[in-house]
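Protocol step 4 of 6: structure prediction from sequence.
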Amino acid sequence: MTIVTHGEDDRAVLLVHAYVDGELDPANVIALEQRMAAEPKLAAEQARVVALRRALRERLPQEAAPPSLEARVGRTVGLTAARARPTWLALAASVLLAIFASSGGTWYALQSPADDGTAEAVIAGHLRALMAPQAIDVASSDRHTVKPWFNGRIPQAPRVIDLAQDGFPLLGGRVDVVGRTPVPSLVYGRRQHLISLTAIPDASVAIDKSQSARGYNVIAWTADGVNYWAVSDLNPSELQTFARLFRDAPS
């Protein structure tokens, strides 16, 4: 008989809290998300923590730190009165830098007014697809099958290109949600890797960026009024090649 200890449960709960705080590495993020999908108790804990944090932000006023806090921190870390001001600023900068690095600085840097949370949404869609039994809603390498499948499901079917001859075969497509709007995502393969290419029509701001976040590479560009977001754990060079081939391919 297998006995599950409270220690194991407590550790799982702590991992959920670290997940909400953005403190887990990409491998543990995927593992924990899979576990939360299978264990309602952990999923409920995540929802509870997120709701609590939101309530605290909305209901508790922002208060300035008491004047004595700086002096107490200075005494704790051994600062002298003569050096308190410059060293305090250096300490604050070091703490902020550590927080930035440990909580996913590259992820924060990826965000900008131009993408308005789009990067987070498309990476989340890619992760959900990887955790699902199938990463696609329509499985086909025929663009004449994939493109019509989107008709009636979203307002505008995407441009579909088959890049099998270049080593990036079309695997199919699915519908993701970005900003409460259903959008098309095409799925391509490259050896054992998957590439999600999300097409967001009616682009108001042109983009052209290449960055990494949460262990995934992201390339975004604008063409013909559509913002394209390619996401994969494929190495940056090959993902850049995919993006170039897609942009240059005839429709």
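Step 5 (inspection) to follow. The beta strands are 138-139, 170-178, 181-190, 193-200, 208-213, 216-223, 226-232.
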